[in-house]
Amino acid sequence: MSEWVLLLGGSTGHGAATAKRLAKDGYGIIAFHFDRGEAKKIAEETIAEVNEITGGRCHYFNTNAAAEETMDKFLPQIKEITGGERVKLLLHSIAFGTTTNFFGEKPVTQRQMDMTVHVMGNALLYWTQKLFAEKLLGQGSRVMGLTSEGNYLAMEGYGPVSVAKVAMEAIIRQIGWELGQFGITANAVQAGVTPTRALTKITDRWEDWVEGTKARNPMRRTTTPEDVAGTISMLLKPEADFINCSIIYCDGGEHRSGSI
Q1: What is the pLDDT at residue 1?
Q2: What is the pTM of this model?
Q3: What phi and psi values does residue 218 have, to the nearest 5 degrees?
Q4: Which helix (H) or strand (E) holds 143?
Q5: Which of 21, 22, 163 is CA-nearest to residue 101?
Q6: No. of H helices and E strands in the chain?
Q7: In angstroms, rounded to a whole number, what is the distance separating the alpha carbons of residues 1 and 241?
Q8: CA–CA gap between residue 242 and residue 245 (Å, rounded)
Q9: In angstroms, how far is the first alpha carbon of the chain from the final one?
């Protein structure tokens, strides 16, 4: 099996933690990020750390991974990096979309909805299709995406992202159903509320969310990116070969404990 993983969003938050964990597990890291300004500085720190852990077996590309031209441009490079071997993991960890309500002073527009659903949902399908066509996914490969309880709970400003994540869950379920016969599995990992940069973009009340989560979570703390990275690491083991078309909860039981 290939020693490489492909991360869509691997510079901050869950993606960065996963890159570091899988690098320590011995995988080479191929990752896309789309960072500017302050976020770019954080990304550079992550890349330097991952590069050191992997001994240089690290390739980061700062470009829009959701664009079809990006997929077509970088697929040959990915194939060259892996030597034509299939990747062990394709992970969707892109946290970029519109956070606003459907109604009110600034209701979401069609353009914003289309962009959010594409970037945070549909893009995973198109990457999977292209990788599979190039035989970069095969026996033992995993396709994964990150989701949240916002998919079944209504939250302030989360509507567009919720729609995108629900679409992604459906896409993952269908990928696993269609490609399972080739030994390729697809699952979503549902993280609990995690104090990351992405959370601060969802609501100005993010600190209240964090405190409320600590109170209702059975383990009395919030989820960390490292929790999620550890779960993804476990799902890459051969013992997880038969886990498919599922949502894996990594939240300390938070989804069983009421709303925010």
Answers
A1: 42
A2: 0.94
A3: -55, -25
A4: strand 142-147
A5: 163
A6: 9, 7
A7: 13
A8: 10
A9: 42
pLDDT per residue as tens digits for the range 29-61: 999 999 878 888 889 999 999 999 999 999 999
Q: What span, in angstroms and rounded, lies between the C-alpha atoms of 225 and 222?
A: 10
CB 121 within 8 A of CB 168: yes
Parts of the chain with a pLDDT under 50: 1
Q: Which class for 96: exposed (0-12), middle (13-18), buried (19 or more C-beta within 10 A)? A: middle
Is-contact 182 176, C-beta < 8 A? Answer: no
> Phi, psi (5° rounding) for residue 248?
-100, 120
> CA 108 to CA 160: how far, in whole Å?
8
Provide, rounded to the nearest whole percent, the portion of the chain with pLDDT above 70: 94
* Bridge partners for 6 per DSSP: 30, 90
Please give the class, per CATH, of domain 4-256: alpha beta
Question: 6, 90 in Cβ contact below 8 A?
Answer: yes
Contacts of 73 (CB under 8 A, 6+ apart): none
Domain ranges of the chain: 4-256
